[in-house]
Design brief:
alpha+beta; single chain; 46% helix; flat; Glucose Permease (Domain IIA)
Length: 388
Amino acid sequence: MKNVTASGLRDRLRAWFPDREFFMRSDGQVRFIKVSSRFQMIGAGVGVAALLVWFASITGAALTGYLANRDRLSLLNREAKVVSSESRLKAYGNDIGKVADDLKRRQDFIDKVTQAHLGNLPKDQQSGETVSNSQTEAAATVKKVSLFLPEAAALAEIEARQLAFIEGLTRLADRRSATAEAKLVKLGLNPQAMLARLDDKTAQGGPLIMLATAADGSIDPRFQRFGISLARMEALERSVDGLPQALPASLEFISSGFGYRADPFTGGADFHPGLDFKGPYGAPIFAAARGTVSFVGQRSGYGNVVEIDHGNGLVTRYAHMSGFRTVAGRPVMPGEQIGLIGSTGRSTGPHLHFEVRVNDHPVNPRPFLEAVPHVLQKADPGPARAAR
């Protein structure tokens, strides 16, 4: 049976790779080149092996990225360990000078990170326990140090204040993150998909300036949690700030909605990835949200296009323009003019084609334009300007 199977396989391979002859004519002479079936099989085998090696490398890279992301999320959700008062008492007894130096480094860490991300902190201390609470152990530390090492009591009190301060800052950052996340969810967006941009290390650089809370270069887990919470808060709030919150033009009405429709040219089924707003030729077009102009030019079917990057994968697209009023790389604010309504590209008449794209996938712009001012709980000058 094995011989029959092997013989059948060889016959099938020979049928796939028969002996082939090629001829070449040069200077009136004809040369024949024969490529044997065996040589073709070897070449095909080498190609398949190379393809398998490439697939294995891609799979390995993807698995490595997944594991790294899982470990990062695990660190974000894990409570920082509260150091016991007994271990801190031992540290004070061994080297008070080293402890004082560690406390100074911690305060430097707090000052740099807080000023960069939050500016001046509010004076009111809001409740909401989402991180570790060192208050009980810190009080016990102060009591024991005062009893056994009176000369170090002041240092113990400074440490207790630092820990309470850093934990309070972390709670504040987590509450602000929760508020921003709720706004995104209310609009049907996935906050975790936007947070995935935190792991994107492309297009980053700068001098190496290490941050540490101890002389050996390490960081206390509570301080590390603080830094991660701040980064998460910043990404979520940047996503909210980039949401469309101004009408993109002074518009008469929506001439075509988002989703499936009858194509205006063929009459067949068509997916429309945005909203079409009918308007007069040459009417102004405004940026719908704060961002940076990432593209100015032509795209197939869209005609003249401006695209604005609002951060964390959110992009708005404005198409069929008759003229541009901005350039790539320019920062823009809601309601700032970026172009003129036209009928360039695949268009039946002057209108604005407006798209909202998240991670390069189109989403319905209508909920943003209708709900965002209420979600943000404040009016934006952009819509008033667009209504003129």
